Amino acid sequence: MIEDSFTPRPEHKFTFGLWTVGNRGRDPFGDAVREALAPTDAVRMLAEVGAWGVNFHDNDLVPIDAAPSERDKLVKEFRSVCESNGIKVPMATVNLFYDPVFRDGAFTANDPQVRAYAVQKTMRAMDIGAELGAEIFVLWGGREGTETDACRRPDEAIRRLREAINFLCCYSLDRSYGYRFALEAKPNEPRADIYMPTTGAYLAFIETLDHAEMVGVNPEVAHEHMAGLNMTHAVAQAWEAGKLFHIDLNDQIPGRYDQDLRFGSANPKAAFWLVKFLEDVGYSGARHFDAHAYRTEDHEGVKDFARGCMRTYLILKEKAARWNADPEIKSLLAEMAESNADGFEIGSYSNERAFFLLDCDFDRAQLAGKRLEYERLDQLTIDILLGVR
Question: Which sequence positions are flagged as catalytic?
């Protein structure tokens, strides 16, 4: 592969899950089209395409019914292959959605034995992640929801979810794992309604936890777009709250099923604003691609998919730097921020400040008449993205 400015390097911290490059192309209407990819082979593939790290669900690496000796053998082998290929393991997660035992949910299921098993399974997944050096643990409640609200009161589900996460935080502290938990929202699929549908819902929930400082969010492009929301706004809210612990990059056409398309392939303008935000604020975490190659692809096509995710991010990063440095854009932004009078930032409350604002005589007509050249600004953005500026 020819090196250029869009070639991934370790400092970019690009990661993929075993379930992404290992996806076999199965869907609800058709069986697998690609041969299974062993976890060790997935690591070698990611090293070949230039990724920095690999993430995994517990059962991506260790079968759900594996004996302890098999579990230890698989983890040891995986760690050895990661080390020999220079691949990091920054994040781990747990599969609480595939097995039939979770058909009514995991942490929120009505059966207390199912809830207890879900916590046990998560602790064991945390053990594996800690052995491999993971510092982030993602929790996606894909089955934590309903088809009918007759099954349970939703406030009881929230209470059960809180109890489980509080317990897991204490387990991490007790074992000195140092995990930060990242909660991942999704509005629907595979359930008709998932209890925590958006990143904003999780941000509110986190503040009710016993160890809120250990818990943040893992926004995903597709999940926010499925709900018709603005991913960059969700990420900005998480960042401003100090809760952007991880991020899932892919793409999605709003209103469709969860597509997990190659990053930037469906909505390049939305992807641009997201990349620009992450780079502008100095986000230092992993850029994780939670996406799948098209069902038409073989394993060589999967490599093309992985390279494409990383290349598109780096192209948009370069476009963001060009946008920030563009003289006309900088001039327009400065004009929009200008005011004829200083001292109107609201600032902290004081009695004196309140009286000052109450006494101000604002010229509404003048304020309303100020030109805001957003059409021009947006077209300049398009010009940059389309390569004519």
Answer: 57, 60
CA atoms 188, 190, 196, 201: torsion sign = negative
Query: What's the confidence (pLDDT) of residue 200?
Result: 98
Task: Tell me, yes or no, whether 5 lies in a domain.
Answer: no
Domain boundary among 260, 285, 318: 318
138 shares its domain with 32: yes
| Contacts for 201 with CB less than 8 Å, ≥ 6 apart | 185
**What torsion, rounded to 10 degrees, do the Cα atoms 219, 225, 230, 232 define?**
40
Do 281 and 232 contact (CB within 8 A), yes or no? no
Is the pTM higher than 0.85? The answer reads yes
Letter for the amino acid at 363? D
The answer to whether the peptide bond before residue 190 is cis (omega within 30 degrees of 0) is yes
Nearest to 91 by CA among 120, 125, 121, 59: 125
* Domain closes at, from 264, 296, 318: 318
Q: Which helix (H) or strand (E) holds 134?
A: none
Spatial separation of the C-alpha atoms in residues 355 and 136, rounded to whole Å? 48
Tokens 């936890």 identify what position?
209
What is the domain extent for residue 213?
10-318
Amino acid identity, position 264: G
Convert the pLDDT of each residue in 186-220 to its tens digit: 999 999 999 999 999 999 999 999 999 999 999 99
202 and 294 both lie in a single domain: yes
Same domain, 214 and 331: no
What confidence tier does 344 reach under pLDDT thresholds 50, 70, 90? confident
- Cβ atoms of 136 and 183 within 8 Å: the answer is no
Place of tokens 């549908």: 197
Nearest CA to 183 out of 152, 154, 167, 204 is that of 204
